[in-house]
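can u pls check wat happens w/ NAI
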Amino acid sequence: MKAPVRVAVTGAAGQIGYSLLFRIASGDMLGPDQPVILQLLEVPPAMDAVQGVMMELDDCAFPLLAGLQASDQAEEAFKDADYILLVGAKPRGPGMERKDLLEANAAIFSVQGKAMNAVASRDVRVLAVGNPANTNALIAQRNAPDLDPRCFTAMTRLDHNRALAQLANRTGTHVTDIQKLTVWGNHSATQYPDISHAVVDGKAASDLVDQAWLEESFIPTVQQRGAAIIKARGQSSAASAASAAIDHMRDWTLGTPEGDWVSMAIPSDGSYGIAEGIIYSFPVRCSGGRYEIVQDLSIDDFSRERMSATEQELVEERDAVQHLLP
Ligand code: NAI
């Protein structure tokens, strides 16, 4: 058995936290031979609720759970953390504009970025789930100048998984029959789920579906899936978001399957002409605990237009919080 690693999770008493923590502790994220110490962060009013979650974690008697603690101080929760899942965020309140939401979260993520800069492991892997996830990751990153900028990622894996499910349904196949699908850009309604390089059961996906379905059904369904779930369930997606966070961290750490790639929002290095520095979702392959952008994919006009629209939104988000970026 390996030595335990420290996994910090913010928003631990929330909906996603309730689906996520038990899967981390059971080994779904880092494998069946990797013990974990969970370090939970919540706001003071939620500390009672966190105690309840901790009681339940104890009661699962997970063989891999090597330690469990909670705090309302980021520097305690992030101490020596090897993995940090930033789930806690301020939800959009009534009458709140996108800009207000950006600013409210910028305050949270700048404090948390500074805390991880001070106390987290130098090889920490950070995943922002709380929305606006891409820009929250950017804010944390810019407030943590002593950490490698590449430690900071945001989650578009839920969008990627949603796209896999839609394409599998349409083509009468299983998600495991599909490779090389990409979600580009922001985790928002401007994201671009792209099947132009996808392969279904060994055949080009674009030969199996028509353009009308792609434009009128597939892309808007994936883009609007979060809203459809809120409408149906009365609450935002939580178990699927937790599952995607597990997938993101697992693949980053343990590697992507041979012959395939996944979508991760990572600091743009200018690949595909995307503005450098923004946290943009690219196709990536992971191995040895590192991610690399898949290069040299052909980009047609249809894709380019959509990749640019979502890039533009991220540039605007960055500009809206510029005064908060050190
Ligand atoms: P929730 O409201 O049930 O839980 C959020 C928790 O975060 C609450 O317990 C709250 O007390 C806590 N929190 C707030 N500020 C905090 C802070 N400064 N430090 C620590 N904890 C703090 O929300 P839920 O459903 O768990 O969603 C969490 C976030 O994830 C939301 O921002 C949501 O929009 C986002 N989300 C992102 C997805 C993605 O694909 N990237 C998918 C689904 C949700």
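The two ends are 41 Å apart (CA to CA).
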